[in-house]
């Protein structure tokens, strides 16, 4: 389930509303930041968010993440009640959509345990759609791109090697007609004399890949912003072998490459009037009888 619409009518779910210090509050409300008090007689829950001067996007996003992670019933969120201080309705919509999609993302897991029950969430506002439509669309696109990167990051390196990562990105991005995706194999990389990438790859059983993603949103301009992402699917350190404690988590050394790919996924949908490209340089760094030595020159 994705959170990608706002209703202008109430439904039967418990209504979550924000309250702040200085407002007239029910006597049995717990005045502790981010704590939700339930009032079943009114079918409402009130969350105390403290002083208005401390109310920021980051604090609302943090509350929303913890709220969705521990949700125990169906809720409808009164967005208008969260509009306060420097946060307008667009900020509020973005915070809840980003948080919900983050918490409920379908991320790789090898666990086979039963997934927890998922409760319904709906958004409610009496404001005109024009006040939040763009924010809702942008938050949906960006949160989807973030979760795409997260899923690739967490996937184990024995499953997502350099060859499979390049294939995955190509297959994901080919759905966007405004992106051009080029994948260079080992032979093409050798022809381009990319010696340092090939040096890192010497110890691997998988070929290196370079993925180039291009978006041209302003054909009248020659300017182009280029993102380059490091794509080491696992970095053992090679012959400069990392100690065991430092080696754990080195599957995340490819994060830069999936960040730039995910950025291009979002850009393709947002369609900014600019020219952007991303380059993913992908391999793993491991040891075999032919791996590069620290004194080698390439």
UniProtKB/TrEMBL annotation:
Q: Does the keyword Hydrolase apply?
A: yes
Q: Which GO terms describe its molecular function?
A: manganese ion binding; metalloaminopeptidase activity
Protein name per its UniProtKB record: Probable cytosol aminopeptidase
The family database entries (Pfam families) matched by this protein are listed as:
Peptidase_M17
Gene Ontology annotations for the cellular component aspect, listed alphabetically: cytoplasm
**What region holds the Cytosol aminopeptidase domain?**
147-297
Keyword list, A-Z: Aminopeptidase, Hydrolase, Protease
User: What is the protein's known function?
Assistant: Presumably involved in the processing and regular turnover of intracellular proteins. Catalyzes the removal of unsubstituted N-terminal amino acids from various peptides.
**PANTHER family assigned to the protein according to its UniProt record, in alphabetical order:** CYTOSOL AMINOPEPTIDASE (PTHR11963:SF23), LEUCINE AMINOPEPTIDASE-RELATED (PTHR11963)
